[in-house]
Specification:
The complex is a heterodimer of chains A (about 230) and B (about 220). With about 230 residues, chain A is an alpha/beta fold. Chain A is built from 9 helices and 10 strands. In chain A, strand 9 and strand 10 (about 205-215) form a beta hairpin. The longest helix of chain A has 16 residues, at about 165-180. The radius of gyration of chain A is 18 Å and the shape is globular. Chain B has one domain. Helices cover about 85% and strands about 0% of the residues of chain B. Chain B contains 8 helices and no strands. The longest helix of chain B is centred in the first third of the chain and has 33 residues, at about 50-80. Classes of the chains: A alpha/beta (about 230), B mainly alpha (about 220).
């Protein structure tokens, strides 16, 4: 569902990604781990079609990027560092707007369902400007799920969420994976995504450092994690 | 094609709804224009005939700077919460985003013009019952917004976008401003279509070329 081969991304003189290769199968939930500046967000932005690769091959949901980016965009949901919503609109209006862009049939029912799911149904008519960071993150998640994407790209989705909401997010993601969605979660919170993902890919200094199966995600991880990161960095 | 226009309309509706709730941008533009009208009216010690002769210049200078205020604001709001990325993620042609933003900007600029023209008529001895003048306002504003939206999208990605936009836009919009002032002046001073036609032709050509450039290049402008 996601195939990345020898992907590089250059910003001026700086190489943000250096020949990264990655494969995520349909229905699989993979954690993309790495320290700040490792290139996780850059990789997700390229997969979402928001940035162009400098070199390499990228395929998302059967669409080659950037050639078939429009077709790929219809099938992917992206949750970035920013909530990507409009502060002067209500949660309802934000989701209605994106439903129009995605030409969703029966949008009203889907919006009801999502606002219920993320726990914002009681504050749906308030301007987003008054939302807390956690509420914005939940609205951003609703926006990302709105069009029932086959591929979910999540960049630090648990940031700004309290424990209870973070657990609720995990339940939502597990349900999405069970429904067949392919999920790639970028994070540096090993404890959180370790219990969620089926495997992890480590990224350090713009390189893919190692791939860890579920079994290794559960035990002795900090050591493995650190060593792999150090190897990639060195 | 229908989905293209639906996307354009969705973006226009969203911008109108956001502005209706905040009323920040149009209010700022209105206050700016009204202040400039009063400042010129009370500081220029000239007779009514001379006032009418300079009216078109004052009119378009004021509208151009008010337009820059609006353009800066409308693209800045997209950048604040990364919502431009939200638009770019949607499966719509990126040129539809350009046309949606251009039409929304045009609407805001026309609202400001409609509300402030009676003041101009009062202080500059102008008659508003001239269809030619309204045509120039529509064409000139369309040209200004079509080039302004394109450049505002470029400037939105820069750190000093508020400074960058006028520096980029004013030279690019110079043909629009000159043609708009000449055509408006012809109508305000009762010279009619004969004197305005050359300037109107420039506006029509510019008003076709700039949107065509936006259609072709907006995708590259917003690309990271």
């Amino acid at each position: 569902m996601i195939t990345v081969s020898q992907l590089s991304k250059r910003y001026g003189y700086r190489l943000a990604l250096r020949g990264v290769s990655l494969r995520v199968r349909r229905g699989e939930m993979v954690a993309l781990l790495g320290p700040n500046g490792a290139g996780k967000s850059t990789l997700l932005r390229i997969l979402a079609g928001l940035a162009q690769p400098s070199a390499g091959r990228v395929e998302v949901a059967g669409c080659q990027l950037p050639k078939q980016a429009a077709a790929a965009r219809a099938q992917l949901g992206y949750l970035g560092h920013q909530p990507l919503v409009y502060e002067d609109l209500t949660a309802d209006q934000n989701l209605e707007f994106f439903a129009r862009l995605y030409r969703l049939p029966a949008a009203a029912a889907r919006i009801d369902e999502l606002l219920e799911l993320v726990g914002l149904h009681q504050r749906r008519s308030e301007r987003v400007r008054g939302y807390s960071r956690g509420m914005l993150q939940r609205l951003a998640l609703a926006r990302a799920l709105l069009h029932r994407p086959r591929v979910l790209l999540l960049d630090e989705p648990h940031s700004a969420l309290d424990l209870q909401t973070a657990d609720a997010l995990d339940d939502i993601l597990r349900a999405q994976a069970r429904a067949g969605a392919t999920i790639l979660i970028a994070s540096h919170d090993l404890d959180r995504v370790g219990g969620l993902a089926q495997r992890a890919v480590l990224l350090a200094d713009g390189r893919s450092a190692a791939s860890l199966p579920k079994a290794k995600l559960g035990r002795g991880l900090p050591g493995h994690y650190q060593q792999a990161l150090e190897r990639a960095g060195g | 094609m229908a989905s293209y226009f639906a996307a354009v309309w969705a973006i226009v509706r969203k911008d109108l709804a956001a502005e209706w709730r905040s009323r920040q941008m149009v209010t700022a533009m209105l206050v700016f224009v009204v202040l400039v009208i009063f400042i010129f009216a009370f500081t220029l010690d000239i007779d009514m005939l001379t006032r009418r002769q300079i009216a078109a210049g004052v009119l378009w200078t004021t509208f151009a700077f008010a337009g820059i205020l609006g353009l800066n604001r409308t693209l800045a709001t997209e950048g604040e919460r990364g919502s431009l990325d939200g638009l770019l993620l949607a499966p719509v042609e990126r040129s539809a985003i350009y046309f949606g933003k251009t039409l929304a900007n045009l609407f805001f600029m026309l609202v400001v013009e409609i509300f402030t023209l009676p003041l101009y008529a009062l202080f500059y001895n102008m008659s508003l019952a001239q269809p030619g003048l309204w045509l120039v306002l529509l064409l000139g504003s369309w040209c200004f917004c079509s080039v302004g939206t394109l450049l505002a999208a470029m400037a939105a990605q820069a750190r000093s976008r508020e400074l960058l936009l006028p520096v980029l836009l004013l030279p690019m919009a110079l043909p629009v401003l000159v043609a708009s002032v000449r055509a408006s002046s012809a109508f305000v001073n009762g010279l009619g279509m004969e004197y305005a036609s050359a300037s109107l032709n420039i506006l029509v050509v510019y008003g076709l070329i700039m949107p065509a450039l936006g259609f072709m290049f907006f995708d590259f402008i917003v690309e990271e």
